[in-house]
Amino acid sequence: MLCDPGEHFQGRYEVEHKYQVENLAHIRDQIEQLGGGAFMLGNHETDIYFDMDDRRLTENDQAVCLRSMAPSGRVLWISKGPGPDRCVAMDLHDADKAVEMLTSLGFFEILRIEKARDLYFLGALHVTLDEVPGLGPFVEIAAMTDDEHALGGLRQKIEVLAIKLGLSPANREARSYRTMLSL
């Protein structure tokens, strides 16, 4: 049964903790035991990152990404930064037109990331199980909000859920997939 996304992806801020894991099957079992609901399973995502010729977004700790998802057919335009918690996303209808629009404005593709992703909801948190070619399996626990003052409380909820899922703080990865693949 798939869950309704409701307010899960609303907000200007996102708190996200990422953990590298050996395999995702155990984590999936833990999520199901905790009553997590599936939102999207078996999704393939393509993230295309853009910047300007002078790399001003990268230099300012910002990212513009166009995410295409299949088989869900969802397309997101995502702006992250500056800083780790700032994130705004909106749905689009046509990925090809969005790429054309961005390139006509002077943006160019700097990186393309493919990943297999399953997404679950546990209360106010969303948990993604990712398999990223060249990097391996990861678990991301995240929440979005418009209230900057709520970020600390959300971080605590994420840390509690990470412990329940058996995720080790030693395996926490602060870098984005973009940063890891750009090295």
> In angstroms, what separates the terminal alpha carbons?
39 Å
**Helix-and-strand structural type:** alpha+beta
Show unreliable segments: 1-8
Mean pLDDT: 90
Rg on CA atoms, Å:
16 Å
CATH class: Mainly Beta
Helix content: 10-25%
- Report the portion of residues in β strands: 35-45%
Q: Identify the strand order in the major beta sheet.
A: 5-4-3-2-6-7-8-1-9
For this structure, the CATH topology is: Hypothetical Protein Pfu-838710-001
Q: Architecture, according to CATH?
A: Beta Barrel
Instruction: List SSEs in N-to-C order.
Output: EHEHEEEHEEEHEH
**CATH H-level homologous superfamily name:** Hypothetical Protein Pfu-838710-001
**What is the general shape?**
globular
Q: Sheet bearing the most strands, described?
A: 9 strands, antiparallel
In the residues, how many domains can be counted?
1
Number of helices: 5
Tally of DSSP β-strands: 9
